[in-house]
């Protein structure tokens, strides 16, 4: 929260002697996030950490990252700590994944900036726009619709979309406009 507030108030870099600590909610192993990025959540807030090299942190790792004097920026609206040397981050233990926030699509759209880089759980959604997860699809519930993006490198990108309504756990993201992405097919409850 403090780092996001710094950025919101105009800071372009973190102050000296600044660390973030949280639980990794992204899953680099399943490939639906670039290996340069890691999404960390602490309580109700999250942020993207963009490394200078591929990272090996796993879903659920509790990490501490030295962000002293590093760039705070956004990539198409997604707030990040950018250019983090890999040696600045360490696993400090096995963390407990945060409980996803129960939300509707309308809730996510109304709170997209505040909820960026955090987990949400959306009930009774349909996923349309393609035969498979690969690329851009649309997630809809009775309150609205939001784009979902799946990288071609994701282990599940070629899997067929569900035909019926599902319960989805996703990370709130941004690419010019709000969007969501899942970490693996375990995020879809049919």
Features:
190 residues; mainly beta; seven-stranded mixed beta sheet; 3 helices; 9% helix
Folded structure, characterized:
This protein has 190 residues and is mainly beta. Helix content is 9%, strand content 45%. The protein contains 3 helices and 14 strands. The strands form 2 sheets. A 7-stranded mixed sheet has the order 5-6-3-2-1-4-7. Strands 8, 9, 10, 11, 12, 13 and 14 form a 7-stranded mixed sheet that branches. Strand 9 (119-128) and strand 10 (135-141) form a beta hairpin. The chain is globular, with a radius of gyration of 16 Å. It starts with a helix and ends with a strand. The model has no long low-confidence stretch (mean pLDDT 96).
* Class derived from helix and strand content: mainly beta
Largest sheet: 7 strands, mixed
| Residue fraction in strands | over 45%
Q: Helix content range of the residues, please?
A: under 10%
Overall 3D geometry?
Answer: globular
Quick recap of the structure?
By secondary structure, the protein is mainly β.
Give the topology.
Elements: H1 2-8, E1 19-24, E2 37-42, E3 45-51, E4 61-66, E5 71-75, E6 78-84, E7 89-94, E8 101-102, H2 105-110, H3 112-115, E9 119-128, E10 135-141, E11 144-150, E12 166-175, E13 177-181, E14 188-189
Parallel strand pairs: 3-6, 8-9
Antiparallel strand pairs: 1-2, 1-4, 2-3, 4-7, 5-6, 9-10, 9-12, 10-11, 12-13, 12-14
């Amino acid at each position: 929260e403090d780092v996001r507030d710094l950025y919101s108030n105009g800071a372009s870099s973190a102050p000296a002697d600044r660390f973030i600590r949280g639980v990794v909610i992204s899953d680099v192993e399943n490939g639906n996030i670039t290996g340069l990025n890691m999404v960390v959540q602490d309580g109700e807030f999250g942020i993207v950490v963009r490394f200078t090299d591929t990272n090996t942190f796993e879903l659920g790792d509790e990490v501490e990252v030295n962000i002293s004097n590093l760039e705070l920026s956004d990539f198409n609206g997604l707030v990040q700590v950018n250019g983090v040397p890999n040696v600045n981050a360490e696993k400090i233990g096995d963390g407990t994944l945060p409980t996803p926030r129960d939300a509707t699509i309308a809730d996510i759209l109304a709170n997209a900036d505040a909820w960026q880089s955090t987990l949400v759980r959306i009930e009774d959604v349909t996923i349309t726009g393609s035969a498979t997860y690969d690329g851009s699809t649309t997630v809809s519930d009775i309150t609205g619709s939001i784009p979902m993006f799946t990288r071609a490198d994701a282990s599940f990108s070629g899997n067929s979309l569900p035909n019926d309504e599902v319960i989805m756990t996703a990370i709130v993201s941004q690419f010019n406009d709000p969007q969501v992405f899942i970490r693996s097919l375990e995020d879809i409850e049919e």
